[in-house]
Amino acid sequence: MNRKTLLSLVACSALSILALGPNQALAQPAVYPNKPIRLIVPFPPGGGTDILSRIVGTRLTEANKWTVVVDNKPGAGGTIGITEAVRMPATGYEMVMGQKDNLAVAPWLYKGLSYDPSKDLTAVALVAESPLVIVTAANSPFRNMADVIAAAKAAPDTITYGSPGNGTTIHLAGEMFKMAAGIKITHVPYKGSNPAVIDTMSGQVAMMVSSIPSAISQIKAGKLRALAVTSAKRSSSLPDVPTIAESTTLKDFDVSSWYGVFMPANAPKDVVATMNAAINKQLALPEVKEAINAQGAEPRPMTPAAFAALVKADHAKWQGIVAASGVKVE
Asked: Does residue 29 have a pLDDT over 90?
């Protein structure tokens, strides 16, 4: 090809691009995702949030040939990880596994919290819901919640209970139980569920309020004794464990938790829709349902709009609960 012909072809190509107009001439954006996605877990490895996050991350990676990297950022009842997430760019490559603890409850507990869940996050997909479970060591003298109440009334403030942190739903469930039963027991906060489970098994704390995913393996191994679940109905994962309402006179006691994926505020709607569809597709699969059920949780696929409405409703509900409990976290 001679120089004159080459110049002619280049000129024709340039004219063709100009004819398309400025919007069409620009390169089309790459299909999402085209690089690794980070999923922040605001609690340490081994806890319920971490386990469910890894189920989701692994399934998205395997099913879609994506790369989803789970990154644990624990501390302050999960608020440290959430805070990091809201500061990330809203590109769809930064996500966080939030839960009722750090989104519906924490804003009413922490003074000067640096995020507003209704403004600083985009609800992407609800993953699962789970009741809580109250556990004690396998060799504990407590056989049921009636035993706990009787012992606490006989010796106020001598019984300790662990939780994964101040200001979590789990902590408040313990405080709600204490108020409802009219007893005095002492809260011992930990930096996540795993260390609290270890100390409960060894008897360092008398009992623990826990998510079922965090405790179920040790319950099944016989190292923890499950005293009661906190929901109105029994858990399908622990069908032999009574509810608090069944085992005490506290007939209206009902507390559960949820886990869901969020992106920073103003994440692109098409990206949110893509991720929601991908997660919901996995939650519908029998093997994924089984994996989540094995952790004591129930898959709860829903649209981003429905999930956002759930977060908003729970946020409003827990304002009154926190006020009644008197719990404050600095």
From this structure: no
